[in-house]
Amino acid sequence: RDVLVKRVAQVLMVQRSGSAPTVQVAGRPVKIKPRLASTLSRTSLSPLPPDVTNRRDAFLNSTTKMTRRLSVADEKFLAQDRKELIAILAEHGNGSMLRGWRCEFDPDGMLEVDFPDFCRAVSRLAWSGDAHLMFGRDGDFSSLTLSELAPHQG
């Protein structure tokens, strides 16, 4: 509790305006209870203890490692989903993945498919992969191109 009070005292500046104590929050005065104001004004402003900063650093390091592990797992799942989708398209294209792409996803020949059309097509194909992961790999969620799905054929 004391660490929290010290941290709040570092962030907020206590002022007395008449009888109602206020603090500045985002440049605006906000009324607070007198007891909190007296606690904040008595608190000495000191940096956080080393054990708190060490715990915070350890937490940040562990979450960074976990994020990296998740991205490696996502790559693995993405590769599996691609293989499965390419196999399904080849099956529906009578042995040709490109023919399956053209028949199921891209009858207009634009070499890309948008998300709603992709979802409708893969529901017909009974593909059970992660469509969001497939579309979001390049950061552009608007469409999936043939070269993103199968770089060699694209």
Note down, in words, how this protein is organized.
The protein is α+β, with helices and mostly antiparallel strands and 154 residues long. The chain has 2 domains: 2-42, no CATH class; 76-149, Orthogonal Bundle (Recoverin, domain 1), CATH 1.10.238. It has 7 helices and 5 strands. It has helices at 2-11, 34-42, 50-92, 97-104, 115-125, 131-136, 146-149, and strands at residues 14-17, 20-25, 28-31, 112-114, 143-145. A 3-stranded antiparallel beta sheet has the order 1-2-3, covered by helices on one side. Helix 3 (50-92) crosses helix 4 (97-104).
Keywords:
single chain; 2 domains; 59% helix; Recoverin, domain 1; 3-stranded antiparallel β-sheet; alpha+beta
Set out the fold topology.
Blueprint: H1 2-11, E1 14-17, E2 20-25, E3 28-31, H2 34-42, H3 50-92, H4 97-104, E4 112-114, H5 115-125, H6 131-136, E5 143-145, H7 146-149
Antiparallel strand pairs: 1-2, 2-3, 4-5
Helix pairs in contact: 3-4
